[in-house]
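Format notes (please read before filing issues)

Several people have asked whether sequences and structure tokens are stored in separate files. They are not. Every record keeps both together, in the order shown below: the sequence lines, then the token lines. Line labels are part of the format and must not be stripped during preprocessing.
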Amino acid sequence: MDSVSKDKAEGRWRKVLFEVIFESDTAAGKWFDILLILCIVLSVVVVMVDSVGSIRAQWGGALYAAEWFFTILFTIEYVLRLICVRRAIRYAASFFGIVDLLAILPTYISLVFLGSRYLAVVRVLRVLRVFRVLKLGHHTKEARLLKDALVASRRKIIVFLFAVLTLVVIIGSLIYVIEGEENGFTSIPRGVYWAIVTLTTVGYGDISPSTNAGQFLAAIVMLLGYSIIAVPTGIMTVEIAHAYKDKPTGQACPQCSAEGHDRDAKHCKYCGAKL
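Then the structure lines:
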């Protein structure tokens, strides 16, 4: 077989593999995703059950073997995804690419750091693919809109967080001066902690002011908290309204696995490959 025939055969093989792994329009692709989601759910259940001491004492060996079985299975799947995508690095750096990698790393790391394999529950994020399998693509689009809104409002939110951080440092210092160590405010960081808990209206109650001046300051911080909480909500609402103006749709790119193309798109808007 000459090099041209080998390239064509390899191209067909990659195309079929890509359709099975990344697409859910075909019967094979749909069944692959369904089995994958089932394995993900079972693997997460195994990790969660293994954290229960009484169950681990009786079934620890079997659960450990099951965890390694799923890890090896997901490792093979991850490698196949990298093989069938022409731009493997782009997929590896994508959201699902990172999640797929994080889904298998904890078990391997546990060989060095005991207990880290329980972090494998992060693979539950992979169940998000169920939206694509069950034709709930509009939910995926809504999630993409939220992501775009967060990205668009990141500068405003960062400025807002810096303003809040400055405020809680000032309030924490004031409450430390007013209350003092005898009332539980042993340091300024302790006062800052109280300011954050009070400003966010969480109110754990593990530490509270006792003096009239401290309680007056606490009342102001509580009222201030309600107005501050509304600020990021307003920022996000505006950006979501802008994001709704242009909803992305479409299939996955066989070159870089990126999604979110227009329905009439002929080429990928990220890498230029033909769809």
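For reference, the curators noted about this record: The two ends are 29 Å apart (CA to CA). The mean pLDDT is 81.
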